[in-house]
């Protein structure tokens, strides 16, 4: 089933949106698309391709054009705009709502919202909110931590030490987003957003201790609501005969939805400080994105040494 958002939820989550009329219809009206419509051609009477399922946004242009119409023509257009799937009307800049719009909206049980924001700003705000709320979501097993502003998803088998490592990272000043289950959705072609399910927000499970509330124990600065996922670090139990990447040139990538995320596998062994290792891995990844690759520097130094030795032998 496709995701939907009620107009009531929209009003509750977005500041600067006020209910002008139709408050009793907020819950029943559902938004199914992130696209916003500014009915320009429709005001001229062209409804062949009217996207009635979108939020109908009225700015200075639409309201000014409508004010030049006769009351009868305006009433006819407003009735046409009130489709059975139209979620709501939004009027920007606190512009006066035409009486014909209010009457038609009340007749068809469609709420009217107003905002002081300019039309372009409210359009961007609505689109950004709806793209996140309506996006396809996936629940992943792991721990999501913000390390120096970098979203790191720590994965691995149950009991490998993900939550304990996250606790150590929190004590080192980093921030928890989600433990155990991470809700992931795609924001755009290059960005994945991760957040905690509502029931698990700010909570961390430590075996032998139980559930702890990170925000209560470490303060509001120890948690974050959501973050972009930039790197996956997979914890694996160390095995003597298993080969692990030692130079950092065997990069793995994982595709989630349509976004490729780099992945690093780290062996777990008694005595290894995983928090410091993961912290260093995140910093090293950031350095790579800024143009410095320690592996390439090592290879360059090695090639120079080989060249020098070859020259001496000659």
TrEMBL record:
<keyword id="KW-0460">Magnesium</keyword>
<feature type="active site">
    <location>
        <position position="141"/>
    </location>
</feature>
<feature type="active site">
    <location>
        <position position="246"/>
    </location>
</feature>
<dbReference type="GO" id="GO:0005524">
    <property type="term" value="F:ATP binding"/>
</dbReference>
<comment type="similarity">
    <text>Belongs to the HPrK/P family.</text>
</comment>
<keyword id="KW-0723">Serine/threonine-protein kinase</keyword>
<dbReference type="GO" id="GO:0000287">
    <property type="term" value="F:magnesium ion binding"/>
</dbReference>
<dbReference type="InterPro" id="IPR003755">
    <property type="entry name" value="HPr(Ser)_kin/Pase"/>
</dbReference>
<feature type="domain" description="HPr(Ser) kinase/phosphorylase N-terminal">
    <location>
        <begin position="5"/>
        <end position="130"/>
    </location>
</feature>
<keyword id="KW-0119">Carbohydrate metabolism</keyword>
<dbReference type="GO" id="GO:0004674">
    <property type="term" value="F:protein serine/threonine kinase activity"/>
</dbReference>
<feature type="domain" description="HPr kinase/phosphorylase C-terminal">
    <location>
        <begin position="133"/>
        <end position="301"/>
    </location>
</feature>
<feature type="region of interest" description="Important for the catalytic mechanism of dephosphorylation">
    <location>
        <begin position="267"/>
        <end position="272"/>
    </location>
</feature>
<keyword id="KW-0808">Transferase</keyword>
<keyword id="KW-0511">Multifunctional enzyme</keyword>
<dbReference type="InterPro" id="IPR028979">
    <property type="entry name" value="Ser_kin/Pase_Hpr-like_N_sf"/>
</dbReference>
<feature type="binding site">
    <location>
        <begin position="156"/>
        <end position="163"/>
    </location>
    <ligand>
        <name>ATP</name>
    </ligand>
</feature>
<comment type="function">
    <text>Catalyzes the ATP- as well as the pyrophosphate-dependent phosphorylation of a specific serine residue in HPr, a phosphocarrier protein of the phosphoenolpyruvate-dependent sugar phosphotransferase system (PTS). HprK/P also catalyzes the pyrophosphate-producing, inorganic phosphate-dependent dephosphorylation (phosphorolysis) of seryl-phosphorylated HPr (P-Ser-HPr).</text>
</comment>
<dbReference type="GO" id="GO:0006109">
    <property type="term" value="P:regulation of carbohydrate metabolic process"/>
</dbReference>
<dbReference type="GO" id="GO:0004712">
    <property type="term" value="F:protein serine/threonine/tyrosine kinase activity"/>
</dbReference>
<feature type="binding site">
    <location>
        <position position="205"/>
    </location>
    <ligand>
        <name>Mg(2+)</name>
    </ligand>
</feature>
<dbReference type="Pfam" id="PF07475">
    <property type="entry name" value="Hpr_kinase_C"/>
</dbReference>
<dbReference type="InterPro" id="IPR011126">
    <property type="entry name" value="Hpr_kin/Pase_Hpr_N"/>
</dbReference>
<keyword id="KW-0067">ATP-binding</keyword>
<dbReference type="GO" id="GO:0000155">
    <property type="term" value="F:phosphorelay sensor kinase activity"/>
</dbReference>
<dbReference type="Pfam" id="PF02603">
    <property type="entry name" value="Hpr_kinase_N"/>
</dbReference>
<feature type="active site" description="Proton acceptor; for phosphorylation activity. Proton donor; for dephosphorylation activity">
    <location>
        <position position="180"/>
    </location>
</feature>
<feature type="region of interest" description="Important for the catalytic mechanism of both phosphorylation and dephosphorylation">
    <location>
        <begin position="204"/>
        <end position="213"/>
    </location>
</feature>
<feature type="binding site">
    <location>
        <position position="163"/>
    </location>
    <ligand>
        <name>Mg(2+)</name>
    </ligand>
</feature>
<protein>
    <recommendedName>
        <fullName>HPr kinase/phosphorylase</fullName>
        <ecNumber>2.7.11.-</ecNumber>
        <ecNumber>2.7.4.-</ecNumber>
    </recommendedName>
</protein>
<dbReference type="InterPro" id="IPR011104">
    <property type="entry name" value="Hpr_kin/Pase_C"/>
</dbReference>
<comment type="subunit">
    <text>Homohexamer.</text>
</comment>
<keyword id="KW-0418">Kinase</keyword>
<keyword id="KW-0547">Nucleotide-binding</keyword>
<keyword id="KW-0479">Metal-binding</keyword>
<dbReference type="InterPro" id="IPR027417">
    <property type="entry name" value="P-loop_NTPase"/>
</dbReference>
<feature type="active site">
    <location>
        <position position="162"/>
    </location>
</feature>
